[in-house]
């Protein structure tokens, strides 16, 4: 069973685990400053929700996907999206004391847009996002 939840339009969490009760999580503050991969204080409460969930479910892992809008150099966007996904992973591993192998971080730059032809700032905001997928550990 897979369930996908859109969270504030720029953060998605997908559950790929069978036979679990799901509740919608709303992440209010997982938004990076422009050209930054720094975890800010407003992000921490939402990231701490993920830590609590993963602590309560030791048989589950997490895939983090970072995405950017299409502005700028594609190579720079790829590096930035990877740096953002890595920053979230590092925070979760450090604060949750999880094994590094339990969390996977991948940056996709602007290669997987939700809005294919960005014409407005809203389109770009939708494409700038972090996605989380909860997966069963093998």
Characteristic key phrases:
138 residues, alpha/beta, 60s Ribosomal Protein L30, Chain: A, 5 strands, 31% helix, disordered N terminus
Descriptive report:
The structure is a single chain. The chain has 138 residues and is an alpha/beta fold. It has a single domain, classed as 60s Ribosomal Protein L30, Chain: A (2-Layer Sandwich). 31% of the residues lie in helices and 22% in strands. The chain has a five-stranded mixed sheet. Helix 2 links the parallel strand 3 and strand 4. Helix 1 packs across helix 2. The N terminus is likely disordered.
List SSEs in N-to-C order: EEHEHEHE
By DSSP, the count of extended strands is 5
Shape: elongated
Helix run count: 3
Low-confidence stretches: 1-9
Q: Roughly how much helix do the residues carry, as a percent range?
A: 25-40%
How is the biggest beta sheet arranged?
A: 5 strands, mixed
Give the helix/strand layout.
Elements (H helix, E strand, L loop, with lengths): L2 E5 L3 E5 L28 H13 L3 E8 L6 H23 L6 E5 L13 H7 L1 E8 L2
Parallel strand pairs: 2-5, 3-4
Antiparallel strand pairs: 1-2, 3-5
Helix pairs in contact: 1-2
């Amino acid at each position: 069973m897979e369930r996908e939840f859109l969270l504030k339009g720029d953060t998605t969490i997908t559950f790929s685990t069978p036979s679990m009760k799901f509740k919608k999580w709303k992440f209010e503050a997982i938004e990076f400053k422009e050209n930054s991969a720094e975890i800010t204080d407003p992000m921490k409460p939402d990231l701490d929700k993920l830590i609590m969930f993963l602590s309560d479910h030791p048989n589950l892992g997490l895939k983090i996907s970072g995405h950017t809008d299409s502005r700028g150099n594609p190579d720079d966007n790829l590096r930035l999206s990877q740096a953002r996904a890595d920053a979230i992973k590092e925070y979760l591993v450090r604060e949750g004391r999880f094994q590094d192998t339990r969390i996977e971080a991948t940056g996709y730059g602007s290669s997987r847009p939700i809005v294919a032809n960005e014409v407005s700032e809203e389109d770009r905001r939708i494409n700038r996002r972090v996605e989380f997928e909860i997966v069963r550990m093998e």
